[in-house]
Amino acid sequence: MATNQPSTSIEEQLKSGVTPNYVDPIPRESHFEVNDECRMRVVSERSVAGGKVHRIHEYRSFIVRDKSNSGSNWQYQLVDKLTGQPHKGEEWFPEGVLKDP
């Protein structure tokens, strides 16, 4: 009879060299908290003479709106500090692309 229970315990899996598939029960702390200020590199497009469009890479300031642990690292939703609007709607940004102000 089949069951939904794992066939081996974690101890047995470790002995056999099989890596168990589970999330660390104590995730590392997030670098940023809700309402913290951070910076992120963004690309903006600006029209110039002759109908050309230039892409400009710059760092802009944001406020952390929400944070989430995805299991292996933290992700954040951001609000543009100048406009007060959510940056790219509900999109989540990985901690690695954010910088301290």
Structure description:
Residues 1-26 are annotated as: Disordered. Residues 1-19 have a biased composition (Polar residues). By secondary structure, the chain is mainly beta. It has a domain at 34-99. It is built from 1 helix and 5 strands; from the N terminus they run αβββββ. The chain has one helix at residues 10-16, and strands at 37-47, 53-69, 74-80, 93-94, 98-99. The protein has a 5-stranded antiparallel sheet, with no helix packed on it. The longest helix has 7 residues, at 10-16. The N and C termini lie far apart (59 Å). The model has no long low-confidence stretch (mean pLDDT 86).
Task: Give a nutshell description of this structure.
The protein is 7% helix and 39% strand. It is mostly beta strands and 101 residues long.
Which strand order spans the largest sheet, edge to edge or round the barrel? Answer: 4-3-2-1-5
Given the C-alpha coordinates, what overall shape results? elongated
The proportion of residues in beta strands is 35-45%
Overall number of strands: 5
How much helix is in the residues? under 10%
Oligomer: single chain
Give me the secondary-structure category.
mainly beta
First CA to last CA: what distance?
A: 59 Å
Order of helices and strands: HEEEEE
Instruction: Average the pLDDT over all residues and give the rounded result.
Output: 86
Largest sheet: 5 strands, antiparallel
Low-pLDDT segments, ≥5 res: none
Number of helices: 1
Radius of gyration: 21 Å
Region (Disordered): 1-26
Biased composition (Polar residues): 1-19
